[in-house]
Amino acid sequence: MMEQSKKKELGHLVIIGSGPVGMTAALILKKHFKHVTLLERQSKNNFLKKYGFTFPIVFSPASIDILKKIGAWDAIMAERSEFFGVVLHKRILGMDIALKSYEEGVYSHWRNHIISCLYERIVEEKIEIHFNARVKDIDFQRSVCQEETLGDLSFDLLLGTDGINSQTRKLLAKAHPTYSEEDFSLTHLDNWYAYRLPAEGGMGEKFGGGNKFYASNVYVDNLAEFPAEKFRVVTTSMKQPMEEISVLVKYGPSLELNRVMQLNEIFFGKYVNSQQELERGWETGYAGKFEQVHAPTFTLNNVLLLGDSAHGFESTGDLINFGLASVASFYQLFTKNESLDKTLKEYDETIGESLRFYAQFSLRRSMEKIGFEIAAIEFFAKLGLMKRHPSLFGIFADDFEIQNYIGSYKRNLRISKLLAIVLALSLIFLVGIILFN
């Protein structure tokens, strides 16, 4: 049973963007608003498309908990594949080394299947969803959202959950009295191309997980034959609804897509059954960008950005989980506080601040500037002096909660820096003793 709100029922909740975060927010907040409207920019056919490339998603215990609360988990878990962790492939001194990070009892799901299951719950709950929606403007002072067909929609609360290129965030940036539009800018990190291949023959043997485990394989180095061209590959094998391997190619901004296709053929050509099979898979895929959102605040009056619209940090499995966890955190504050104003203020000062800090870490991770940080924290974690680094399955702890998690990470950073200084000084002291003796 959902927790009952202490405040009176509010009027209108408008949600821009109907991905997993938007639909989850609509379902968990429905009982507290007289009317809920979802605005989705895609057509219904594209929104519910089940074929072609679809991202695999691994849910953390915190995400599963909120999906259970909204009655969507049983349908979602009907199609899943066992996922034991990540295999990191790296060349060290000319040798290919596979580094494995395990996590038992974890499963991956196709994103499109998740969308379909959540949409079924939206229909069951008779929540209003408008496809092909076009948001023209938001009046943040009067709390009015202007949509091309529906006209003016007055709201008590508006949630922007419309992704990395969020229209809500752009309008908030334009209207914000304190920050300039540049403060909400995007940092372009890398480009990507994604598609799927059958898990047959050499592909299944090389990139599948075998009979027991299905793993994510991350090839972090450029092709040995072309060391100057940034071309990296992530593969994830899935059993349900059929055995397939999702392929995510990550490449630098200087590479043209035609060249990426050629490098892709060089990488996978030896494993596929035929060149035609590889070409068919490639043609059904699509391209995109890894971008980082710099958002100094997630709120303005009665408008709140959630999920990718707010932080948009490049995912290594954390993005959707932080999005759903932020919905859960907002709901907890919403049911605790007497007023919506107080809820939004407390959210921004606690959860929002934690997510902004995590986004800074994610940017360093994306730019590959966390090697020493990970090594230091993992070293001290093995000594029992701190928790494991957040990039290594931290979100899969049973007691995961955003603010406590980020609080532990901040403490770990301080302690690791202090311990590193102590170790360095101790080493200098020992060297000094040896030299002077």
If you had to describe this structure to a student in words, what would you say it looks like?
This protein is α/β, with parallel strands linked by helices. The chain has three domains: 10-82 and 106-185 and 294-366, 3-Layer(bba) Sandwich (FAD/NAD(P)-binding domain); 188-290; 371-429, no CATH class. The chain is 39% helix and 25% strand. It contains 13 helices and 18 strands. The chain has helices at residues 20-29, 44-47, 61-69, 73-76, 111-124, 167-175, 201-207, 257-268, 275-283, 319-336, 340-366, 371-382, 402-436; strands spanning 10-16, 33-39, 56-58, 81-92, 95-102, 107-110, 128-130, 135-139, 144-147, 151-154, 157-160, 186-198, 214-219, 231-238, 244-251, 286-293, 299-300, 303-305. The strands form three sheets. Strands 3, 4, 5, 6, 12, 13, 14, 15 and 16 form a nine-stranded mixed beta sheet that branches. Strands 7-2-1-11-18-17 form a six-stranded mixed beta sheet, with helices on both faces. It has a three-stranded antiparallel beta sheet with strand order 8-9-10. Strand 1 (10-16), helix 1 (20-29) and strand 2 form a beta-alpha-beta unit. Helix 1 packs parallel to helix 5 and helix 11 packs across helix 13. The protein is globular and about 75 Å long. The N and C termini lie far apart (72 Å). Residues 1-6 have low confidence and may be disordered.
